[in-house]
Please model this.
Amino acid sequence: VMPLLTSCNDNNNNGREHSMKQEEEEEDVDEVAAKSVLMRLACAFRNFGGVDCNFVKERGVFAARNDDGEVQWNQSCISIMERTGSLTKAMELAEHALLPKQSTTTQNNESGESSPHSLERHFKPPACEPHYSFVYGNDADLIASLLQPSSISVGSQLSSGNRSSSPNDVSSGGRTKRLVLECPPNFTSTEVAVVWTYPSSLEGVEQWREIGRFRLVERGTSKY
Model:
């Protein structure tokens, strides 16, 4: 019996070792692939220059909803970005570097001009626009409570016996000011971060990790 049990244990150990080795190999493959993506992008974007990130102020901050009215978890608090020339060029270059067969730029045989028609598939519904996310998975009702500015005297609150305040209120110089959620200020990005976004779910966000980053301009460039 003992040799049989020993044999079974050995098989189990071998099975576990094989499984662990296979998992390590899969992780190694992912790691190599991630570094390859980072290197290809860094090479493609060498001396690319800054990317203008401007926001559509008229759209403000909102939660994007699907056709059924449900808020999309990864578009639950966003600001729409303008499709600036540098942003469009950056997206075209990234796709050409990573997916040359599906490049966003198609050559027109007659005019020789390019058309970024397929960029649209990167702008996922329901917003279908490039955007900045403040947070994921929030209650959409919280956004409305932060959109309207207001301020009242702390002294008036106390004298009237009204000591209640919103958790969004902060005291400064004897006054209580409500925090206001607004579009971020326009900026020019001089750096790209490549992030592993799997699993693609709200629960999986904690497992997302940065693969690496690279600069779009040389350090010390006066323009940036």
Notes: Residues 1-10, 104-114, 150-167 have pLDDT under 50 and may be disordered. DSSP finds four helices and eleven strands in the chain. The longest strand covers residues 209-215.
